[in-house]
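step=encode ok
step=design start
structure_in=
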């Protein structure tokens, strides 16, 4: 099942408002940690899966990438990306990555920020990425943390009668599959996988895990966005870097 929630105009306009805020989870938590794991991009061929409005794809061009292609299923996202970013060596295509044909061993770097949890067939996704990567090619992606996606629509933060947080409820962790959540609009679809599935699928497809980050906010970030203090009690995201290894 391919979800295209970003072409729901109500969702998209509210999403743009959220991302336009200086202090949000992407700017203060996910992106700062993501950027620490980016490989050298000089003369590299890059695919950005779920490229959104194209900011990261454009950044890769400024870092010397030879060519960057951004894919997104949303026509809203691609239209904004093309309007915002015009660079030689940068192209945007409206397509689900599952439908894209990529020549084997031609890509140096595959990136994806908070998109893989929307894709139903994770096994096929990683297999396809592994085939596309050249030897020593790098995959870097972030997703919602399995601790967060596990709970099947039930209350996550348990509070006392005064409304103070007691603990975060983790339930149904081992039951993988489709989840729905209310985020900006009702019934946004995503897919829960255990951490072992996420990591072992990489290994089984010839990708050597190089780094795993469960982001912790900086003190300044918490001052700017106090809700980030919850990250010390449970992580919102996990960021993984892996490298293509060819057995000889």
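sequence_out=
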């Amino acid at each position: 099942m391919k979800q295209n929630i970003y072409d729901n105009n109500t969702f998209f306009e509210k999403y743009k408002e959220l991302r336009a805020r200086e202090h949000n989870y992407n700017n203060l938590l996910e992106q700062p940690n993501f950027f620490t794991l980016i490989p050298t991009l000089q003369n590299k061929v890059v695919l950005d899966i779920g490229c959104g409005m194209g900011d990261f794809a454009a950044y890769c061009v400024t870092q010397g990438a030879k060519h960057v292609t951004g894919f997104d299923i949303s026509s809203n996202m691609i239209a904004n990306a093309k309007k915002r970013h015009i660079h030689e060596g940068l192209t945007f295509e409206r397509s689900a990555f599952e439908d894209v044909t990529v020549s084997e061993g031609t890509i140096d770097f595959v990136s994806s920020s908070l998109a893989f949890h929307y894709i139903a067939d994770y096994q096929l996704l990683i297999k396809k990425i592994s085939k596309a990567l050249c030897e020593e090619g790098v995959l870097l992606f972030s997703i919602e943390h399995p601790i967060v996606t596990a709970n099947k629509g039930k209350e996550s933060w348990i509070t006392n009668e005064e409304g103070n947080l007691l603990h975060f409820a983790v339930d149904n962790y081992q039951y993988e599959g489709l989840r729905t959540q209310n985020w900006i609009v009702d019934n946004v679809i995503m897919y829960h996988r255990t951490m072992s599935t996420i990591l072992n699928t990489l290994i089984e497809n010839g990708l050597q895990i190089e780094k795993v980050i469960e982001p912790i906010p900086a003190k300044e970030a918490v001052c700017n966005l106090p809700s980030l203090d919850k990250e010390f009690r449970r992580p919102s995201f996990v960021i993984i870097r892996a490298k293509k290894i060819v057995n000889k």
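step=design ok
step=annotate ok -> DSSP finds eight helices and eleven strands in the chain.
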